[in-house]
Design a protein that fits this description.
The chain is α/β, with parallel strands linked by helices and about 280 residues long. Helices cover about 45% and strands about 15% of the residues. Helix 1 packs parallel to helix 3 and helix 5 packs across helix 6.
Length: about 280
């Protein structure tokens, strides 16, 4: 089991500080958000330099989160998507990240499910092929308000893609808030299909036609929201999964804390629920 600090929980920090903070607060690994990695590289720094920092602090590079909008289908946008995939995969290979997260949002909203499935699968297959050249695998995250919002849809997509380097991240909030996935569904998974866990809590959308305000719905530490966190943890553990558990706290309220306190608090809550 790898207890992982999520770079989203410390949004206003940078990659180098996050890696040090992970070591100081007792984490085993680090899940970096793509914006922090890209920002670092765009300033002319080399991935090799960051790799030395992981080694210095003995923190495992776990996942890059995320390659977003993988449902882009317009030719220029799709070409940009594959360019982004190549850049992230090249950096991941140097840094030692085994996994990159894939996020389909709402580019195909309103289209029939077979079309959503076909177009997204085509993109994901091409991304998977890029990743294979770099030794990278991908974890698919269903998004609660998007056309792909459930475990069963995600597994269908993975089957259509037909690549061995595609699996799932079990994000408690997205699957729970999406309304079609229960802990019992997760418990039926083969552990080899689970590449990562996002340990988190939150509230559900009111369902009254308003836009989803993810920042408000997820501004809760585990145990403070409405998700039966212990049930989701038990479901994952029943599969025999023993990989990374990542403490994802998407919370502008908590980003105004001392970020070391955020890391400590999320680490302690992981001990309470998981260990």
């Amino acid at each position: 089991m790898i207890i992982t600090m999520h770079g989203l929980s410390t949004m206003y920090s940078n990659a180098r500080t996050d890696i040090r903070l992970a070591r100081e607060t007792g984490f085993d690994g680090y899940e970096i958000i793509d914006a922090k990695l890209v920002r670092y590289l765009d300033q002319g720094y080399k991935a090799e330099d960051l790799k030395l920092l992981f080694e210095q602090y003995q923190i495992k590079p776990v996942c890059i989160n995320a390659l977003k909008d993988v449902d882009r289908v317009e030719p220029e946008e799709r070409a940009q998507l594959l360019h982004e995939a190549e850049r992230l995969c090249a950096a991941a290979e140097v840094l030692g990240f085994l996994t990159i997260q894939l996020v389909p949002f709402c580019r195909l909203e309103g289209r029939p499910w077979p079309e959503v499935l076909e177009l997204t699968a085509r993109n994901v297959a091409d991304i998977a092929d890029i990743g294979r050249e770099h030794g990278i695998r991908f974890q698919l995250e269903p998004i609660a308000w998007s056309p792909i919002h459930s475990l069963h849809q995600s597994l269908e997509l993975i089957k259509v893609v037909g690549r061995e380097n595609i699996g799932m991240v079990i994000d408690f909030w997205h699957l729970w808030a999406g309304g079609e996935t229960e802990p019992s569904d997760v418990a039926k998974l083969d552990a080899s299909m689970i590449y990562g866990i996002h340990f988190c809590d939150g509230k559900k959308h009111s369902g009254q036609g308003k836009e989803w305000d993810e920042m408000a719905l997820r501004s809760y530490l585990p145990g403070e929201g409405d998700i039966p966190v212990a049930e989701w943890v038990a479901a994952v553990k029943s599969t025999g999964y023993d990989g990374s558990w990542s403490s994802e706290l998407l919370s502008p309220k908590h980003w105004e804390w001392d970020l070391k306190d955020v890391a400590v608090q999320t680490r302690e809550l992981m001990e309470k629920y998981i260990l």
